[in-house]
Design a protein that fits this description.
The complex is a heterodimer of chains A (about 210) and B (about 475). In chain A, about 60% of the residues lie in helices and about 10% in strands. In chain A, helix 6 crosses helix 7. Chain A folds into two domains: about 80 residues, Orthogonal Bundle (Methyltransferase, Methionine Synthase (B12-binding Domains), Chain A, domain 1), CATH 1.10.1240.10; about 120 residues, Cobalamin-binding domain (Rossmann fold, 3-Layer(aba) Sandwich). With about 210 residues, chain A is of the alpha/beta class. Chain B has about 475 residues and is an alpha/beta fold. Chain B has a single domain, classed as Trimethylamine methyltransferase-like (TIM Barrel), CATH 3.20.20. In chain B, helix 3 packs across helix 9, helix 5 runs parallel beside helix 6 and helix 5 packs antiparallel against helix 17. The longest helix of chain B has 22 residues. Chain B starts with 11 loop residues before the first helix and ends in an 8-residue tail after the last helix. Classes of the chains: A alpha/beta (about 210), B alpha/beta (about 475). At the A-B interface, helix 4 and helix 5 of A face helix 14 and helix 15 of B.
Chain lengths: ~210, ~475
């Protein structure tokens, strides 16, 4: 088994130390960053989502794999920038204004990072303006919003409306989630997508960016 | 450190009173046994016999002698000879409800007569249901001659599934081929005694009667060391007193009679103190297995069995409903939960609908989850690296979650029972996205999956051929030239 296969295998096993060690060795062996990324890190992560959906593995294993992926990514990042290889995309993430519940949002962040997205996490109690400002500044094509309280859900609509007013609807997509949020609500306020959990959010973002 | 959760209905004082009343009935009113060989045997041991009336009066000495030699536990082994059951203490195991005459068709969900193909599907599915430890000969295929309807089920079970089998003979002759099938697997009579493969249900006829067939089956099983479960079936208010206590007196008397026949034939013969009592519903003239009082009688007679020191069995965790609906779920899970809390050792019922008349493959799949949940209850609550708690809470406060904590990963699968896909735990959107499947839809999918993923039994091919030869010869004896494909 070559080193790239091993990276993929240890991603699957969720062993961050081993992935970091192997990634370092692969870099020393002058394997291109793109190859390490695509055939090692991403390939390892690809099977994780499907296995999770089929209940072959549970959330801890997914998060361990994502953590391992991140360990490899941290080492590769400078090389990817040098080689001008773009990330899968940027996602601005936050819990909306008035809401401090960030557990679900954090899970979505970990999953997105694990799938190779760059996540700009604004934390909780984020104003609509802040979401849009950040997305514009980082040229992020996706804003992800979370809410646990029915009273804070209308903030999501404010963000969608602001984007509409600025004619940014096509450039910046919105994805929403959280316990009281539903697909119907997303359609009602004109959000681009709704996701019901972390793994599903990755799928939705990929669809929004035509990566599926 | 974990406490095995238990509960009880009867005080020791009440149990002793019930037993003493049952003894009085056996000694003063007596019982009827329609088998001259058994009557002669009992006469030799000092019972008062009236051969013409098939009537017997016991003495307390006879009863005590039989109780003394009855074993307090025994084990079961699968077709490969691996231990699967240790019937002792509060160990609990599930087995499907047995001998249904109908099946709920797994495509149309209509009740119809079952055939060989259904039985093979059943055996394949059961191979994959991890919370149901044994097979039962769950229903009677209608595509064979009636004379082999008992042995043919056992034959198919032994061929397709490795789990031990709860079964029973419908006739005196039926026993012999059923014993021969087991001998073909174990090799010798000694090995079969050493490693029992089946349990035979032997059913007294209420009130206080043992038929020729049941008596002879008890005798034959005892001779070969094949465990039996006595399945006394008093019907409260009809063939037994209307009260639960009165029904228990009758159940005790009938079960003690079985124990006496078995132990005098072969002291030490293994048995389960079992039963399938029911109340009689005077509105519908039916015997509801899902009635709460039926379940109470089951649990209470198991307490009496345990008071004697014997492993127990009961027909509980089944439903009177005719389809896979909420009633089926509630009656089955109430029964299973009670059965586990009372420590009934062999819990018979999964898959069964329509009293004891209809098996359903979909219900088996659902009931497997009910069994899994109740077996989790039986494991109770115990600390697992929980003390001292401060380090874990420090970790939680630092990391903000414990999702990938070593403690979580170490204990997640041990601490929780994760049901299969038949139990819906998706949030609304996911459930809708995946097709808004009903319980029946999901159960049908699981049935298909289990059939597709079935791995053939590891029983050597030579033995499988031997079983087929024996069964073909038996079928020929009754004019059936070929077994169904």
């Amino acid at each position: 088994m070559d080193i790239i296969d091993q990276i993929s295998l240890y991603i699957d096993k969720g062993d961050d130390e081993k992935v970091a060690e192997l990634t370092r060795m692969a870099i020393e062996q002058k394997i291109t960053a793109k190859k390490i990324l695509d055939d090692g890190l991403f390939r390892g992560m690809n099977t994780i989502g499907e296995k999770f959906k089929n209940h072959e593995i549970f959330l801890p294993e997914v998060l361990m794999a994502a953590k391992a992926m991140q360990a490899g990514m941290d080492l590769l990042k400078p090389l990817l920038i040098l080689a001008d290889i773009p990330s899968k995309g940027k996602v601005v993430l936050g819990t909306v204004r008035g809401d401090l519940h960030d557990i679900g949002k954090n899970l979505v962040g970990i999953m997105l990072k694990g799938a190779g997205f760059e996540v700009i996490d604004l934390g909780s109690d984020v104003s609509p303006e802040k979401f849009i400002e950040t997305a514009k500044k980082h040229e992020a094509p996706v804003i992800g919003m979370s809410a646990l309280l029915t009273t804070t859900m209308p903030v999501m609509k404010e963000v969608v409306n602001l984007l509409r007013n600025e004619n940014l609807e096509d450039k910046i997509k919105t994805i929403i989630g959280g316990a009281p949020v539903s697909k119907n609500f997303a359609e009602e306020i004109g959000a681009s997508a709704y996701s019901y959990n972390g793994a599903h959010a990755v799928k939705c973002v990929k669809e929004l960016l035509n990566q599926e | 450190m974990a406490i095995r959760p238990k509960t009880q209905f009867l005080s020791n004082e009440l149990i002793e009173k019930i037993i003493s009343e049952a003894r009085n009935i056996l000694c003063k009113l007596g019982t009827t046994i329609h088998n001259k060989e058994v009557l002669a045997l009992l006469s030799d041991h000092g019972a008062t016999i009236d051969m013409n009336k098939y009537h017997v009066l016991f003495t307390n000495e006879i009863i005590d002698k039989a109780l003394k030699s009855t074993p307090s536990s025994f084990k079961l082994y699968d077709v490969l000879g691996n231990e699967t059951h240790d019937f002792s203490g509060f160990n609990t195991y599930f087995t499907p409800g047995s001998a249904a005459i109908n099946i709920l068709d797994n495509k149309t969900q209509k009740i119809r007569k079952p055939n060989t193909e259904d039985y093979i599907k059943y055996a394949k599915i059961l191979s994959g249901l991890e919370n149901i430890a044994s097979q039962s000969t769950a229903f009677v295929p209608a595509d064979i001659v009636e004379n082999i309807s008992d042995s043919y089920r056992l034959y198919l079970s032994l061929l397709y599934c490795e789990k031990p089998v709860v079964t029973g003979a419908f006739t005196i002759e039926g026993f012999h081929i059923m014993k021969d099938l087991q001998l073909a697997i174990r090799g010798t009579e000694e090995e079969l005694k050493e490693k029992p493969l089946t349990i035979f249900s032997c059913c007294p006829s209420s009130p206080l009667k043992f038929s020729d067939v049941t008596s002879q089956n008890v005798v034959d099983c005892a001779r070969y060391g094949i465990p039996v479960e006595f399945v006394s079936m008093p019907l409260s208010g009809f063939m037994a007193p209307v009260t639960l206590v009165g029904t228990l007196v009758e159940h005790t008397a009938e079960t003690l009679t079985g124990i006496i026949i078995s132990q005098f034939t072969n002291p030490g013969a293994p048995m389960l103190y079992g039963g399938s009592p029911a109340i009689f519903d005077m509105r519908y003239e039916t015997t509801p297995m899902g009635a709460v009082e039926t379940m109470m009688i089951d649990c209470a007679f198991s307490e009496i069995g345990k008071f004697f020191g014997f492993p127990t069995q009961a027909y509980i965790s089944l439903s009177d409903s005719k389809m896979l609906d909420a009633q089926a779920g509630l009656e089955s899970s109430m029964g299973a939960t009670l059965a586990v809390l009372f420590g009934i050792n062999n819990i018979a019922g999964p898959g069964m609908l329509d009293f004891e008349n209809c098996q359903s493959l979909e219900k088996l799949v659902l009931d497997n989850e009910i069994c899994g949940m109740t077996l989790r209850i039986a494991k109770g609550i115990e600390p697992k690296e929980d003390f001292p708690s401060i380090p874990r809470f420090q970790e939680l406060l630092e990391e903000k979650h414990l999702l990938i904590s070593k403690h979580t990963r170490r204990y997640l699968k041990e601490e929780y029972y994760f049901p299969g896909k038949v139990i819906d735990r998706a949030n609304l959107s996911r459930w809708q996205e995946e097709g808004s499947l009903t319980l029946t839809d999901r159960a049908q999918q699981e049935v298909e999956r289990l059939i597709n993923e079935y791995q053939p039994s590891g029983l050597p091919e030579g033995i499988k051929s031997e079983l087929t030869k024996l069964m073909e010869a038996e079928a020929k004896r009754y004019g059936m030239e070929k077994l169904p494909k």
